[in-house]
């Protein structure tokens, strides 16, 4: 059973959510808070014109949502590992965007020697003004970080409760909801991004013309019934030259041991049934997907594959795609990004990993 | 000694139990406070404009991406303009000084604040002499011996272990640095009246009510508000500790310059008397600073008494055998209690009589009497083993502070107190025998600023537990090690219990060979980390120091097994001492 069915709540924040695409693959949240099992029959619908505003939440529902919210945003609770993973995801996204930007500048301006002192500035600005889509935003952990970094962020989730939770959480933060905080005038405005949440599946967005500079979908793929279809949808939503970021879990004995045997059964840190090992996707499978996948033909032209060549050890070139393992360091209580390179069989890529691929221009 | 420790433990427990109540009361009280209609939004509210708070503001301002994206306000009850405009004639010095380690200096330089600290008013410490007041066992070490090279400091002249700096000189430098770098709002002469947790589903943010009527809503509330931290009480963080039943007398000392035949006045001297250590810290060729930890009644008598008495007693405290110091303390306190404090000449007579009975030649370096005899310009024999004779105390500089040990149970608030973090004395208060208090605070600030900077880079929420956790993890253990080493040293040395003193005397001589204790006693040395992100190097040394102190005591346990009645006595004495020391470090 896929997670999006779990909340049997009929809350509809955007009318689109009940579109015909229900039975296709969906963006779903990574883990379900236990409270989601509680059947709720109350309905909270909003006029179609007010699709995203947080103010559309019925106050009487707030108490209910905040119970869920306290799970998503309980940093020491069930989601603690996601909270700690978040900076590493952001680091990867940022570094990759920066790298591509610099490669581009290099091609344009030739080699520039003196980059000293600019690094931090570049780091900060690289996401500013980008249109970024977070598919399966859950409680909004990644979406908030993207928006704070200056991206115009749209977070979507097929679970309306998650969207409500994410909206409620963001509404407390003047950086994310500047309109509700008139007195935040003293705030430096250098990095104004924006944040919008919608109750929608990725497929729903295909019908709209808008495409994104970057599409992120973190810890979603391993919960999807039709991963190929899901990847196609995400890929289509990316602008030419844009980026697709994924994080998921490799299907290896190690990942079974860590994410299911240890996390769910032994330590019971994660609700049992959260993960299904057979659904895990290996990096090599993602790579071969994007070796075959072509950007949809424009005006009869057939597109070229996103990954046009790989090295002997199966890894793509750095300018087309990248796989990076994420390793948990228990004594630091921290996730770290595994060093670059190595092979797909390196231990660091045997469990949680990040994947980036760029849509050809 | 041990009964006293037992009572300390009880005190500790009752404190722990009492504290949450205090916190609750504060919170209730705060909720009653009228919240203004429109709280002003801030990303960082720093409460406290002491060295820690100002350094944090300065460090945050030094990261461009931090000051560009965060709104930061510092609130201080006192008048900071008087600190920014503070000035004293050259030659006179404020009585509150701190030895700033090389690591702290490197941090302040990286931030850009050290350039605003008036260098002429600071003095390097190039050598340290530490000795036991009872056994006279002594260790000496120099910066070069510690592998600190001249390249470690700006002067390029000689290697230093630390730099003695008036707190005000540092705070003024930090303020000047802040006014040169925009982006931080400073509200001084404004008191934090109450703090409450905003009522909001899913967890509210701290609301800080100020005495000027404003209310700030903080993404992150930093308690840099000193020992009695209101932020710590708001966050419901309890702390454990005790007061040492000791006061530290501080004063600025005037003395003649060293002769050309003596080493310059860049040596710090510290004598461990059973009543507490007395330290002489060089500020200039003719001025130095005193930190003398002693029993409260004595501190009161000496600081409030006739001005010449303190100078005389300081000279004696570095020179007279301990028995005579004890005797002097006794007569001073008795006279005080009788309402007839001793006059200057009475004390002079007492001291010279005592010196005679110890066969101390009044023309030698070991005499506390200022004599006219030394006009040859030739130094007296062994004069380099003692600080110069104090001729007077700079007027108005004698004061005393109670000493305590205090460590918050956590540096970050949770639950209702979330979005709070503690730095500096709000998180920990330490015995000044090692001159580390401020340096620990600067270490906190350096780490917290780095954490905030990293979180901003990753688009994270700087008030979140996830963002603050690395700070707490890095600093808590490190501070704890240093604090417990200092605490153990204090307890080891403030005893006259014979076997322990014997052990100490042996110990100190053994120590001379031992890196570990040297590290502990060297205390204020720190090497010079390159770049802001480098780890403070002191931790390993402190760890060794703490182990060394335990090893030292453990060694005597072994000695006691060698047999013989004497050894048995020694052994049991040490066992008692060991029991009385906190077990874990
Ligand atoms: C005798 C003695 C000698 C020492 N020697 C050394 C040494 O050699 N080396 C060393 O490193 N350290 C030394 N220390 C320790 C050092 O002085 C302290 O560690 C240091 O001052 C702590 O700085 P801080 O900024 O954390 O706190 P503080 O200096 O205590 O500053 C706290 C600030 O918060 C403000 N505040 C409090 N409550 C409120 C409120 N409600 N509203 C607004 N503002 C508020 C206060 O006005 C104050 O300015 C010594 C200490 C003593 C007592």
Automatic annotation (TrEMBL), chain A:
Tell me which Gene3D superfamilies the record gives.
Answer: Vaccinia Virus protein VP39 (3.40.50.150)
Q: Where is this region: Disordered?
A: 175-194
Q: Where in the cell is it found?
A: Mitochondrion inner membrane
Q: In which pathway does it act?
A: Cofactor biosynthesis; ubiquinone biosynthesis
Keyword S-adenosyl-L-methionine found: yes
Q: Which GO terms describe its cellular component?
A: extrinsic component of mitochondrial inner membrane
Q: What class of enzyme is it?
A: transferase
Keyword Phosphoprotein in the entry? The reply is: no
**What are its GO biological-process terms?**
methylation
**Known catalytic reactions:** a 3,4-dihydroxy-5-(all-trans-polyprenyl)benzoate + S-adenosyl-L-methionine = a 4-hydroxy-3-methoxy-5-(all-trans-polyprenyl)benzoate + S-adenosyl-L-homocysteine + H(+); a 3-demethylubiquinol + S-adenosyl-L-methionine = a ubiquinol + S-adenosyl-L-homocysteine + H(+); a 3-demethylubiquinone + S-adenosyl-L-methionine = a ubiquinone + S-adenosyl-L-homocysteine
* UniProt KW keywords: Magnesium, Membrane, Metal-binding, Methyltransferase, Mitochondrion, Mitochondrion inner membrane, S-adenosyl-L-methionine, Transferase, Ubiquinone biosynthesis
The entry marks the following residues as binding S-adenosyl-L-methionine, namely 89, 136, 157, 218
Here the segments flagged for biased composition (Low complexity) are 177-190
Topology relative to the lipid bilayer, per the entry, is:
Peripheral membrane protein
Binding residues annotated for Mg(2+), in chain numbering: 219, 222-223
Transmembrane stretches in the record are none
Pfam families cross-referenced by the UniProt entry: Methyltransf_23
Into which family does the record put it?
A: Belongs to the class I-like SAM-binding methyltransferase superfamily. UbiG/COQ3 family.
Among HAMAP family, the record links this protein to:
UbiG
Q: What does this protein do?
A: O-methyltransferase required for two non-consecutive steps during ubiquinone biosynthesis. Catalyzes the 2 O-methylation of 3,4-dihydroxy-5-(all-trans-polyprenyl)benzoic acid into 4-hydroxy-3-methoxy-5-(all-trans-polyprenyl)benzoic acid. Also catalyzes the last step of ubiquinone biosynthesis by mediating methylation of 3-demethylubiquinone into ubiquinone. Also able to mediate the methylation of 3-demethylubiquinol into ubiquinol.
Per UniProt, subunit arrangement is: Component of a multi-subunit COQ enzyme complex, composed of at least COQ3, COQ4, COQ5, COQ6, COQ7 and COQ9.
The protein depicted here goes by the name Ubiquinone biosynthesis O-methyltransferase, mitochondrial
Gene name per UniProt: COQ3
Automatic annotation (TrEMBL), chain B:
Query: Pathway involvement?
Result: Cofactor biosynthesis; ubiquinone biosynthesis
Compartments where located? Mitochondrion inner membrane
Which superkingdom does the taxonomy of this entry point to? Eukaryota
InterPro entries in the record: FAD-bd, FAD/NAD-bd_sf, Ubi_Hdrlase_CS, UbiH/COQ6, UbiH/COQ6_monooxygenase, UbQ_mOase_COQ6
Q: What is its EC number?
A: 1.14.15.45, 1.14.15.46
Give GO MF terms, alphabetically: 2-methoxy-6-polyprenolphenol 4-hydroxylase activity; 4-hydroxy-3-all-trans-polyprenylbenzoate oxygenase activity; FAD binding; oxidoreductase activity, acting on paired donors, with incorporation or reduction of molecular oxygen, reduced flavin or flavoprotein as one donor, and incorporation of one atom of oxygen
**What's one GO-annotated cellular component?**
extrinsic component of mitochondrial inner membrane
PROSITE patterns documented for this protein: UBIH
Which UniProt keywords are listed? FAD, Flavoprotein, Membrane, Mitochondrion, Mitochondrion inner membrane, Monooxygenase, Oxidoreductase, Ubiquinone biosynthesis
According to the record's subunit comment, the protein's assembly and interactions are:
Component of a multi-subunit COQ enzyme complex, composed of at least COQ3, COQ4, COQ5, COQ6, COQ7 and COQ9.
Q: Which family does it belong to?
A: Belongs to the UbiH/COQ6 family.
| The protein's name in its UniProt record | Ubiquinone biosynthesis monooxygenase COQ6, mitochondrial
């Amino acid at each position: 059973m896929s997670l999006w069915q779990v909340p049997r709540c009929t809350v509809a924040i955007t009318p689109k959510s009940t579109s015909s695409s229900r039975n296709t693959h969906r963006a779903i949240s990574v883990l379900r808070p236990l409270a989601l099992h509680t059947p709720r029959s109350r309905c909270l619908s909003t006029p179609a014109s007010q699709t995203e505003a947080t103010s559309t939440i019925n106050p009487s529902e707030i108490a209910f949502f905040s119970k869920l919210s306290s799970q998503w945003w309980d940093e020491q609770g069930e989601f603690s590992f996601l909270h700690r993973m978040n900076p590493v995801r952001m680091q990867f996204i940022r570094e990759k965007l920066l790298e591509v930007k610099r490669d581009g500048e290099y091609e344009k301006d030739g080699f520039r020697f003196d980059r000293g002192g600019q690094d931090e500035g570049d780091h900060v600005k690289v996401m500013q003004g980008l249109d970024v889509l977070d598919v399966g935003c859950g409680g909004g952990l990644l979406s908030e970080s993207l928006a704070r970094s200056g991206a115009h962020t749209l977070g979507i989730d097929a679970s309306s409760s998650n969207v409500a939770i994410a909206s409620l959480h963001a509404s407390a933060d003047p950086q994310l909801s500047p309109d509700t905080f008139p007195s935040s005038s003293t705030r430096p405005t250098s990095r104004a991004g924006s944040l919008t949440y919608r109750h929608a599946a990725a497929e729903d967005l295909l019908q709209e013309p808008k495409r994104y500079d970057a599409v992120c979908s973190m810890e979603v793929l391993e919960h999807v019934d039709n991963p190929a279809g899901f990847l196609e949808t995400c890929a289509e939503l990316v602008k030419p030259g844009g980026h697709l970021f994924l994080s998921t879990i490799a299907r290896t004995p190690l990942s079974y041991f860590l994410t299911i045997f240890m996390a769910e059964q032994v330590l019971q840190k994660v609700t049992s049934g959260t993960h299904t090992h057979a659904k895990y996707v290996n990096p090599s499978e993602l790579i071969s997907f994007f070796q075959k996948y072509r950007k949809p033909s424009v005006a009869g032209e057939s597109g070229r594959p996103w990954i046009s060549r790989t090295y002997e050890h199966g890894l793509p070139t750095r300018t087309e795609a990248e796989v990076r393992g994420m390793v948990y360091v228990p004594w630091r209580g921290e996730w770290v990004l595994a060093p670059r390179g190595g092979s797909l069989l390196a231990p660091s890529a045997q469990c949680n990993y990040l994947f980036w691929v760029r849509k050809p221009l | 000694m041990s009964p006293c420790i037992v009572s300390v433990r009880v005190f500790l427990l009752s404190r722990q139990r009492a504290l949450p109540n205090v916190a609750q009361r504060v919170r209730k009280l705060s909720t009653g406070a009228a919240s203004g209609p429109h709280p002003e939004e801030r990303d960082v509210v720093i409460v406290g404009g002491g060295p820690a708070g100002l350094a944090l503001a300065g460090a945050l301002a030094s990261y461009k991406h931090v000051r560009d994206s965060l709104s930061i306000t510092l609130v201080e009850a006192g008048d900071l303009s008087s600190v920014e405009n503070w000035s004293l004639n050259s030659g006179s010095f404020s009585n509150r000084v701190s030895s700033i380690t090389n690591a702290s200096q490197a941090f302040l330089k990286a931030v850009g604040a050290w350039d605003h600290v008036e260098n002429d008013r600071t003095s390097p410490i190039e050598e340290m002499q530490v000795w036991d007041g009872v056994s006279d066992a002594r260790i000496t070490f120099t910066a070069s011996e510690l592998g600190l090279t001249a390249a470690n400091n700006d002067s390029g002249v000689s290697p230093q272990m630390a730099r003695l700096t008036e707190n005000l000189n540092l705070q003024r430098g930090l303020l000047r640095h802040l006014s040169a770098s925009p982006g931080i709002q400073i509200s001084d002469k404004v008191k934090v009246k109450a703090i409450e947790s905003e009522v909001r589903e899913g967890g509210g943010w701290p609301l800080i009510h100020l005495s000027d009527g404003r209310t700030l809503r903080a993404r992150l509330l930093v308690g840099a508000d000193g020992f009695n931290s209101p932020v710590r009480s708001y966050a419901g963080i309890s702390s454990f500790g005790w007061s040492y039943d000791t006061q530290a007398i501080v004063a600025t000392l005037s003395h003649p310059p060293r002769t050309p035949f003596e080493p310059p006045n860049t040596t710090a001297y510290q004598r461990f008397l059973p009543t507490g250590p007395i330290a002489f810290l060089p500020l200039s060729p003719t001025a130095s600073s005193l930190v003398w930890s002693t029993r409260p009644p004595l501190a009161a008598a000496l600081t409030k008494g006739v001005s010449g008495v303190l100078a005389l007693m300081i000279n004696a405290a570095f020179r007279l055998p301990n028995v005579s110091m004890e005797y002097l303390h006794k007569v001073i306190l008795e006279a005080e209690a009788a309402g007839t404090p001793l006059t200057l000449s009475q004390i002079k007579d007492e001291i010279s009589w005592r010196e005679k009975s110890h066969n101390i030649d009044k023309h030698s370096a070991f005499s506390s009497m200022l004599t006219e005899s030394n006009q040859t310009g030739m130094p007296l024999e062994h004069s380099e083993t003692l600080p110069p004779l104090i001729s007077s105390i700079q007027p108005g500089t004698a004061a005393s502070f109670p000493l305590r040990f205090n460590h918050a149970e956590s540096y970050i608030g949770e639950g209702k107190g979330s979005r709070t973090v503690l730095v500096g004395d709000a998180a920990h208060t330490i015995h000044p025998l090692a001159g580390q208090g401020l340096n620990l605070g600067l270490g906190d600030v350096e780490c917290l600023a780095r954490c905030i900077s990293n979180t901003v880079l990753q688009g994270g929420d700087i008030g979140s537990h996830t963002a603050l956790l690395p700070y707490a993890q890095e600093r808590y253990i490190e501070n704890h090690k240093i604090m417990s080493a200092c605490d153990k040293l204090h307890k080891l040395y403030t005893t006259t219990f014979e076997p322990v003193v014997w052990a100490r005397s042996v110990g100190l001589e053994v120590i001379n060979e031992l890196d570990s204790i040297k590290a502990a006693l060297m205390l204020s040395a720190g090497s010079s980390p390159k770049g802001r992100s480098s780890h403070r190097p002191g931790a390993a040394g402190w760890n060794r120091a703490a182990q060394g102190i335990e090893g030292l005591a453990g060694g005597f346990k072994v000695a006691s097994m060698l047999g013989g009645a004497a050894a048995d006595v020694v052994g049991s004495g040490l066992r008692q001492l060991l029991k009385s020391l906190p077990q874990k470090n």
